[in-house]
Amino acid sequence: MRVAVLSSGGKDSAAAWWWAMCKGWDITHLITVRITGGDSWMFQVPGTHLVEYQAKLAGIEWIQVDSKGEQDTEIEDLEIALSKLNLDGIVSGALRSDYQKSRIERMAERLNIKSWTPLWHQKSRSHMQGLIQNGFQVFITGVSCEGLGKEWIGRTLDTSSLQELETLSGKYRFNVDGEGGEYETLITAGPHMPGRLELDGEVQWDGRRGIFEIQHVHCIA
Fold first, then answer.
1. How close are the terminal C-alpha atoms of the chain, in Å?
2. What distance in Å separates the CA atoms of residue 91 and residue 3, rounded to the nearest whole number?
3. Residues 129 and 214 in one domain
4. Cβ of 188: how many Cβ atoms within 10 Å?
5. How confident is residue 39, by pLDDT bands cut at 50, 70 and 90?
6. I want to staple 42 with a disulfide (CB 3.0 to 4.6 A). Which of 92, 100, 180, 206 is the partner?
7. Are residues 70 and 42 in contact, defined by beta-carbon separation less than 8 angstroms?
8. Whole-model pTM?
């Protein structure tokens, strides 16, 4: 089975990538949609260029698809890129967005390929615990909700910090898996790729939200 993985570099697409590996499938490409406009209806915006480094570690071809992020055209931009590849299907890390899942599925039908969303409707807590237990290094690149302050930016989740995150999510009523955009992540290591990424950068914080401004990325084999 020849598949491409739709990847933002974050935890959900990494988990979907690993799922495809466990199936024994041939992962031929990592596909990243880079939003050149201000926002997107269905794709992550910040930090997606870092998928290139994950692809280098894994020895998988990386394709970046530029899109303005407009509702009517962003899926078309992805479709055009996929139409040029010899694939049996595409794997994505959609968790609960019916909008995202349905649009990818309709695109796959037009291309006559399969669409797999292995994380679909996984429970938030078990999804996050599974990532930590299986060795994914979940690096928080940005936060944008009440309850998550500057101290969370640049932090890598472990069992202790995940428990803290769960407590805060209950108190401030945000999604512990970040599905509502409460925080963004980058996977720096995990069972899906050999080696790890080391990041140099600094925290940018405006008092309510912030990001980890990455200045250098080192691939450690």
1. 27
2. 7
3. yes
4. 23
5. confident
6. 100
7. no
8. 0.94
**What are the structure tokens assigned to 92, written together?**
């994505």
pLDDT in tens, 43-95: 876 678 899 999 999 999 999 999 988 888 999 999 999 999 999 999 999 99
Same domain flag for 6 and 106: yes
- Residue 98: which CATH number? 3.40.50.620
- Contact present, 153 and 143 (Cβ < 8 Å): yes
Distance CA 86, CA 93 (A): 21
CATH code, domain carrying 139: 3.90.1490.10
**The three-state (H, E, C) secondary structure of the chain, written as one string:** CEEEEECCCCHHHHHHHHHHHHCCCEEEEEEEEEECCCCCCCCCCCCHHHHHHHHHHHCCEEEEEEECCCCCCHHHHHHHHHHCCCCCEEECCCCCCHHHHHHHHHHHHHHCCEEECCCCCCCHHHHHHHHHHCCCEEEEEEECCCCCCHHHCCCECCHHHHHHHHHHHHHHCCCCCCCCCCEEEEEEEECCECCEEEEEEEEEECCCCEEEEEEEEEEEC
Residues 152 and 177 in one domain: yes
Same domain, yes or no: 108 and 180: no
